[in-house]
## 1
Amino acid sequence: MDKETFRQYGYEFVDWIADYFDNVRNYPIRSSVNPGDIKSLLPGSPPPEGEDMATIWKDFQDIILPGITHWQHPGWFAFFPANNSPASVLGELLTAGIGAQCMVWETSPAAAELEERVLEWLRQMLGLPAGLSGVIQDTASTATLTALLTARETASGFSSNETGIAGNMRVYTSAEAHSSIEKGVKIAGYGSKNLCYIPTGEDYAMLPDKLEQAIRDDLDAGKKPACVVATIGTTSSTAIDPLPEIGRICRKYRVWLHVDAAFTGTAAILEENSNLLKGAEYADSFVFNPHKWLLTNFYCSAYFVKEPELLIRTMTINPEYLKTASDEKVHNYRDWGIQLGRRFRALKLWFVIREYGVSGLKEIVRKHIRLAGLFAYRIKSSEEFELMAPVNTNLVCFRWNDGSRSEKELNILNKKLLSRINESGSVYLTHTILSGRYTIRMAVGQRTTEKEDIARAWEVIKYSLKEIKKSTGRPGTS
């Protein structure tokens, strides 16, 4: 491709993205294609000769776009937010154009030093303890695995990297914790049988007394408590594990404390949520995702550690061909995580923080929490719906319940209700199971979501329930 063709389509793509930002609400949020539909439209073999960009661009619009789920739609209330913003997209464009491989300081000094500075900005914005050092990981799953590996090495006196892991190391987390913890436990070699799920209370937060009892029982059995993973904002219900109590237990028994605030941590930038991370001074490691709720496109996960030398000692492999003259003076972030190769992810985050400013980011986060509160008020004021969990920030868990159905009937009905809601194409919600009860989740966090989008969602929900009642006569019995 010559420069002029690149320029032509570069302008065209940017124009298309700018229009997409404005028009995304006109797309059905979920794709209507069936499994295999997209693949059936793609050749089974690669093209023997190069094709012109006009053909490729047309195929993107005709084949790929119909199979896209539109996470940036203002009616997106599913799973969790995965935001972008114009500033972030422009930063990503420059990152792709530069094409730097930022594995060590010398391969791009600006990438390393900007990452160091921007992570310090994030630490200040969240009110995390001074002295924590940050690095950008791709996702919270990778950050949690990194924490589990460091905890493993710390617990073994840095012997398990050489001799393998002993079979008696234990990891503890809430019964409501994210599935990435179990996956990380498997990958890190602890074994899923050594992951101890701690019971939760009525608010779905970890019970500290149950944690301490589990640690004591394991010590009495000759096992080695290695790591506790506490969650600030579980995916199912945004439950907040009590960090101060958990932290004191971890300190008492010398157990690594990793804090997973991937979804909800962003809310801590607000002064009124300063208590959200109370107890973070006990954390040995901490993660939250700017790519969820801080307008920075995927991937961008901020991981902080209290003692980076433990992380580096766990991760460092130093072959001769990677050594540079500046190694002793700088942060080589290849030693701060699993990957050797690293993108210049700090650039887009820098763009976002500078373009919005801390006050602008606070305004958006505060708006989302307010809108979630507005929706929760509608649920509480309705005679047909009920809240299923505390609304701690921007997630509302609810279900239909007329007070005369069995739990089995209610589970069937609410599953039907969610399906009907999502068939509308204008809103998208997902579900979870809380205490055995089918629960509909509404996660408010899309950059463009406004009050009228909450009102539209409420009307869709009510209309969908009305249609189910009309079609079944007695909904939830079939």
## 2
Amino acid sequence: MMVRAQALAEIAKLRGDALVVAVYSSAFEWLEISPHPLNFLAVGAMGQAATNALGFAIGLPDKSIIVLDGDGSLLMNLGTLVTIANVAPENLTHFVGYNGCYEANGEHPIPGRDTISFAGFARSAGYKTVTEFRDIATMAQELPAFMEAPGPRFASLFVQPSIKPELDYALVHGEAARKRFAVGLATDRARLAASR
């Protein structure tokens, strides 16, 4: 099992200028690990992180899109795996923090936590590249090749439940956060257009 913040730090090293959709506890940790105007935070939208990321992947096919999902969140919308695999956006990388509980809601266990395989779900759905990371050393070694593999890509991150962060919803849903993302996206699009 990994510490989620350490796993997220490995992803941050390879982020580049990717647009990142993060959900719940991962979102608050991600803000500290990788502050960036292209952080789209899906806190309060349980089950919708991957769907939001798919929309960005379709609308911005020239942009790398990363989604930091949770196991409980993904369970609420498993059908999105089939939809993503069917659309097959090559620019989408889907990480699921697998800690076996609804961490943001009191660490209640998710159904089937000892038997289900999110990597198995993604593989059956048709994701092109699927893996699992259970320890930080292996993740650090294999993550660069995974991020370059054919997409959509999916990885289960076996992580421990973390200390619950202070859930400052104004920070992620307030006007400043929305404006920062809108300006960041417009700036990114303008930079891309100028480079063509």
## 3
Amino acid sequence: MEILFYRYNSICEPDILQVFTDFGVTVHVEDMEIYDKHVTPRQCAEKVTEHILSHSLAFVFSINFFPAISYTCERLKVPYVCWSVDSPVPELFSNALKNSCNRIFLFDRAQYAFFSPVNPSCIHYLPLATNVKRWEQAVLAMTDKDYETYGADVSFVGSLYTEKCRYDKLLQMQASSFTAETPCEMAQTYAGSHNDPSHEAPISLYTQGFVDGLIEAQLKIYGCNLIPDNLTERVIREIAAADPDFYKGADTYGDTDRYLVAHQYIGMKLAAVERERTLNRLAKHFDVTLYTRSDTGRLPDVHCKGGVNTLTEMPKVFQASKINLNMTIRPIETGLSLRVWDILGCGGFLLTNYQSEIPDYFEIGKDLETYESLEELEQKIQYYLTHEEERVEIAINGYEKVARHHTYEIRLAQMLKVLTNAQLQ
């Protein structure tokens, strides 16, 4: 079997490429997007066409969905297989999602429920996985100095999302454009510009207050996303109009504005607020270490150590830390992020926010631990820091569970089974 793997440098691509190779698949790689982030859809289509015409491919594969690849495969009658590992993915709103060549796998059941009606026979649910073999090599090679260097009571590895928050960037640009000296004058400026269609649309004080209130409500609830259904048309319209780069694909099958405002703008703002607030609160009572490349200036009591290399340093953090904290961004509504699988695959103890899909794969309190409020999070940190044997046993159970049932080898075998069954029908 020969396939084309179209790469853009997702962190899970090397693991999946290795598994395909181990399965005896001949993998041709197209990696121009790793080196050139300005590749156009046309260039993508041309490259994929060259590969298809040069080889007898069983399918073209990518992490996340590329409409240009789908259209190319539809035209040349070659299956296009993709596995979504992110949320949101605006490209899923492309009309290319309807193509019969697609074999699309989505890791989040809420995401699957949302998009599968567009092309029911070609869209499937498939959770993420981890590369236990890779993590074993890194962990077994750890030295006493590694455990000393990366050890901590509570560790968090990840972005603070402050640099990824489009909503904040819009407010910052907007604030710099106003010269009103008092709140009253600023309110008058907002009102005037709101009524002047020639003025660049601002985000009104009303919408800012609405978003702040929605975020505060969502912060109190885990396992359910309140934001999309509670957005008003005014809030959606103002945020979409304020960003000149708002995703407005000409090739879409529906109104994307509500989904994108909820997930790309408010969802990312929520992630930034939640992570900063949670880390600051925990740091008042516990020894908290953060590994991130984000700005940490607003985290005075957190031990901030910069970013870590995903393949070489991250597994050492997960293994050496007493408690590994995970905070899933809310655009991942029900599913398990890659971080969940990787922490467990490294033999780390995981304490994560509750997601409704967790009980489908793990036993809470046996394989991992969850929290549904900051009060519960603090209580469980306090408990597990003082119950080492129980903590270690849970970490071992979680590792054994993913090693038996949730590796990339197992997941890609499940994917290939679906592809085979679809081909036979």
## 4
Amino acid sequence: MNLQIGQPAAPTFAEPLALLSDCHRRVERFLEALRTVGRLAPKRPLNPVEREALETSLRYFREAAPRHTADEEESLFPRLRQVDPAEVATALAQLDRLERDHQTAAPHHALLETLGQRWLAAGCLSPDEADSFLHAAEELIVLYTKHIALEDGEIFPLAARLLSASALVEIGQEMARRRGLFPGSIPARRKDHSHASTLPFQTL
């Protein structure tokens, strides 16, 4: 991991909304890594840096990203839906849209996983496969740009204002359990790949 002097401490499970937003930075960077690899090396063997970028990004969306989706759909959104509807009527409609975004993203992620693993195994993709890989990455970037802006700009601040301290503690505990951690022993600075603060291929 690359350390930077004066780098702010990463949020912990005691700050679940900040941690969810921090995860969005992972989503953005790993998607950009997939698009960059798709543009640089679509029909030739991957160099070591590109291979590492592809492997790491695919692993993130295969293993860590589903936990982030569960954090929202199983922990955060249900609690927002329990708030007085008069206060969150608009937000509730937005939650439905955000859940639809997750469903829309799923086939694109599946295609990237299939083509990415084929690329790693065979060394290259056919022209049609390379075009499909890049298109899927770009479609996800467009989708998540709007999705993340809505969550970071509206949903998470609303949750910070309306949810009780105990509800936020419960959300953080559920997030920790999804990652195999006991809430009473959550480390202040984690090394969980799902929230890694830097990437091993920042030169891309």
